[in-house]
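Researcher: Sequence recovery benchmark, item below. Answer with residues only.
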């Protein structure tokens, strides 16, 4: 037996909903909230064309933490998708007239009334999309943005430009856009947990037995100092040593005999130095990102002092691979080169870029210096590096080796999901007359594509039979000169590193 709903009953239900919509609109229009007559119209105008949210994204990203930057980017991406959906489908699907302004006080009304259809509310969609996108990446930032987004949505009814149902529909579409973006680009919490396998490390309540060296001086030192304050508060028994980057390894060597674990707060270069000491003494390493850059800390899942403190007190740790570069054993004395890398090793134009960036960073700041250094390196048209592989000498613009498989397209992509896979992620950009064109083509081709321009492979070891005189290498942000034959390989699961482990059950 089926029951048909007559058109008359459907029309009656729609009429009641529309009547309720108008009653709520009139109630909001007639109600006076102290201070709202000035604040909400300004807030509504500020959200025109997404300007309020672009400003909020810039402010969030400016805090400098990776989680904040990801939240800002996700919020803007969600807003863009919501706006595109509203403008192409939403406004054209339902032709609804704007509310009459008879009951809305003149002081609340916008100076320029919108001329598009009323359903759904684009401002509400943008507000909900941005707030939801931010919250999916960072609950703390989402909690801060949500009240502003709610006020923007309310302002659209308060100023008389939308009915409540327009606002609710727009907010639902905006939240849906944020979840759609998450489906296309998963949040960090949805991705596999990096850093395996689990390793034994002592639990240090209050940080007792941890000796942490902190990079001093410059902008990196200031940022490290802020994070160390939070660490001192959470781990009051930890010993903190402040020193210049050049003295960090020596200070940790002195402290290793009385430590149960070594720690470092600084950029990747300082982490590299501390890792060498930890390897020699068989001690676990605690890494607090001070940066920039701080790729290793972020890849093992430590973004701030809270993450590290939780791991140190619980004894949560993983074993990670260590990359190694060295000249053959038969080479002795000053001609021998040997070192480790936790992130990347490179030869060619990238080391020259690193060297120029380091030279200009103090005057220009890290990011402007890096951008200018890359531009100057490519515009100077340097000669390609000469390297010999399997008895054949080739011109090479760039040889890049990552400690572990990276996941993102490009020459030096951004994230590793497993730091104990035993592999080197190798990219080689072959020589040619124009390095800029070749590097761009290699970047567009991606990591899994072989082209005449680049080779992209994953190996357990790589041997360069000969490097030309004066060849410069960059490893973890540091620069050195290499000569002759060179071998790149791995020390599998050699370093134990503290990181917060996921809860089970």
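Model:
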């Amino acid at each position: 037996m089926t029951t048909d709903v007559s058109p008359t009953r459907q029309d009656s239900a729609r009429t009641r909903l529309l009547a309720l919509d108008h009653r709520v609109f009139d109630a909001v229009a007639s109600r006076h909230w102290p201070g709202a007559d000035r604040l909400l119209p300004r807030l509504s105008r500020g959200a025109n064309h997404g300007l309020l949210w672009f400003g909020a994204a810039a402010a969030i990203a400016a805090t400098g933490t990776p989680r904040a930057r990801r939240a800002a980017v996700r919020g803007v991406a969600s807003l863009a998708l919501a706006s595109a959906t509203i403008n192409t489908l939403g406004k054209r699907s339902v032709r609804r007239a704007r509310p009459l302004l008879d009951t809305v006080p003149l002081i609340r009304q916008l100076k320029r009334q919108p001329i598009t259809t009323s359903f759904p509310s684009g401002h509400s969609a943008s507000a909900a999309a941005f707030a939801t996108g931010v919250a999916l990446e960072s609950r703390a930032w989402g909690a801060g943005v949500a009240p502003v987004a709610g006020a923007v949505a309310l302002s659209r009814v308060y100023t008389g430009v939308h009915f409540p149902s327009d606002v609710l529909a727009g907010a639902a579409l905006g939240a849906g856009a944020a979840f759609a973006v998450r489906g296309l680009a998963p949040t960090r919490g949805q991705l596999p947990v990096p850093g395996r396998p689990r390793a034994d490390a002592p639990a240090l309540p209050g940080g007792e037995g941890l000796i942490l060296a902190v990079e001093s001086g410059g902008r990196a030192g200031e940022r490290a100092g802020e994070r160390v304050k939070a660490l001192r508060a959470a781990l009051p028994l930890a010993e903190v040593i402040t020193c210049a980057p050049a003295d960090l390894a020596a200070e940790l060597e002195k402290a290793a005999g009385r430590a149960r674990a070594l720690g470092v707060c600084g950029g990747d270069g300082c982490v590299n130095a501390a890792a060498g000491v930890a390897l020699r003494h068989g001690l676990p390493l605690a890494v607090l990102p001070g940066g920039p850059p701080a790729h290793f800390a972020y890849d093992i899942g430590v973004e701030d002092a809270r993450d590290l403190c939780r791991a140190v007190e619980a004894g949560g740790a993983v074993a990670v691979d260590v990359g190694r570069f060295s000249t053959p054993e038969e080479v002795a004395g000053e001609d021998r080169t040997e070192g480790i890398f936790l992130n990347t090793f490179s030869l060619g134009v990238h080391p020259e870029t690193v060297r120029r960036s380091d030279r200009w960073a103090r005057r220009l700041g890290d990011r402007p210096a890096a951008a200018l250094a890359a531009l100057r390196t490519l515009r100077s048209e340097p000669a390609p590096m000469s390297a010999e592989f399997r008895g054949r000498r080739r011109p090479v613009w760039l040889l890049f080796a990552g400690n572990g498989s990276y996941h993102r397209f490009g020459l030096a992509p951004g994230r590793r999901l497993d730091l104990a896979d035993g592999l080197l992620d190798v990219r080689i950009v072959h020589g040619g007359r124009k390095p800029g064109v070749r590097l761009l083509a290699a970047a567009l081709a991606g990591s899994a594509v072989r082209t005449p321009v680049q080779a992209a492979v994953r190996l357990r070891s790589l041997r360069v039979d000969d490097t030309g005189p004066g060849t410069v290498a960059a490893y973890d942000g540091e620069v050195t000169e290499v000569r002759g034959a060179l071998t790149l390989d791995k020390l599998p699961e050699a370093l134990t590193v503290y990181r917060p482990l996921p809860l089970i059950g």
